[in-house]
Amino acid sequence: KTVKAKVHVNFEQTIGKIEPEIYGQFIEYLGRAITGGVVDAKTNQVRKDVLEKIKRLQTPLLRFPGGTVTKIYHWQDGIGPKNLRPVRPNLIWGGEESNQFGTNEFIDYCRMLKTDPFLVVNMNTGTPEEASNWVEYCNGAGNTSFASLRKKHGYPQAHKVKYWGLGNEESAVPDTGSLQDPNKYVEIAWQYAKLMKLQDPNISLVLAGGDTKWNETLIKELHPIADYISLHYYANSKKGQPASLFAHIDTFEKEIVATKKQIHELAPEKVENFNRWYRFPARKKPLKIALDEWGIWENEGKGAYNLEVTYQWFHALGVAGFLNIFQRQADIVGMATWAQTVNVLAPIMTNEKESICQTVFYPLELYRKYCTGTSIATEVESSALEQSGAENLGILDTAASYDEDTKMLTLAVVNRHPTVAVETEIDFPVAKSLKIFEKHELTATSYTAANTLEKPSQNVVNYQHQNIDNSISSITLAPASITLLRFR
Ligand code: AHR
């Protein structure tokens, strides 16, 4: 079956710069995410097979060491001679942490990936001083104690870590030890921020966001010292209703829009009474949103906390939907890190010998290559998806970007329907002379197909790249497909 649709690309209506940091990743001391994923569980050496796969994602940002684990993590356990590092119980997720992959190993890993490190500090069992010492250890260029310690550990050059998270999910339930009271968070965050920024005024701070009420207090009170407020989004589908995943993802866009409104209303650009500490300037622009944990969390997985989830093809369509949202909301989404990277809710899965790319890996890889530059507004006229759990959703989901360097306009279109092809007319109200140049298409053997370690050599995902160079204005999008159309 084929239906018709129309996509308008409003070339003159730019939304904002697509920050490269929206294509970040996250790793945590959780189950087999680091030990057994990033590094070999027996040797603690970096797994080359995993590294090569992460490289394909071209991630510009890597968040570490958590997540919830930051609530018990003390960075000094993970520095210095490896044989002297303490083995600690992982009091959050269970098991033991050998601390063999600590700060410097993480920074080395980031360098191998050509990615920026993003560290999250402990605001629960740690102290502002401990966090500030971590900034000194990483970024100190002089001869102060912690900067000298880093040099002694073999790193004469400062790591220049720019991104720092002030805690993680601090509004969350008590059993993880979160701060819970927004006023308490504000009070403590000031102490952390002051000391950390006095160590290095060039760092960017990410506030640990929560619900609307919580965010209201944080935005009002902390916007002069922070650069981002974080939101965490995990989507899932209702049992037996794959398309309900898209409806869930759709609600997040509404939350992003609501938070943007809140940021603009609550944090006027003129900052007054910035009289606490003065050796760094107050931020005078509205905060950006850091979606520093986003992903798909289905309840049926293996491993620690059932987090080793197998993703089917429709999950990959959901990932493309998330990435379309980040583009559509480019004026407020300043960064996003997919949770997580290996084995835990992850695009890459390993066993002792092998690793595979799950279905969700492929849209991540494709978007990061081409959906760059400035976000351009799109509008869709398409029929309803008509799948259970996906009421009021259209078949097509779109976003567009224009890259000044390549002079290419990229239209991303997801056909979310499992069986219906969509004959799509593409309308450029102003730039009529654009020619379609390339088509990149991802499809799979079925809506529910998955790549698994049981059959490591079988890839259910098909990727097709076609050079076209034609002024066609209509294209048929295959059922359950992710297509990037590139115009010049
Ligand atoms: O990504 C897994 C966990 O989910 C993180 O540790 C926590 O921040 C979130 O609740």
TrEMBL record:
The keyword Hydrolase applies. Belongs to the glycosyl hydrolase 51 family. SMART domains: Alpha-L-AF_C. It is an enzyme of class 3 (hydrolase). It catalyses: Hydrolysis of terminal non-reducing alpha-L-arabinofuranoside residues in alpha-L-arabinosides. Residues 292-481 form the Alpha-L-arabinofuranosidase C-terminal domain. The keyword Signal applies. It comes from the Bacteria. This is non-reducing end alpha-L-arabinofuranosidase. Homohexamer; trimer of dimers. Its EC number is 3.2.1.55. Keywords: Carbohydrate metabolism, Glycosidase, Hydrolase, Signal. It holds the Pfam family ASD1_dom.
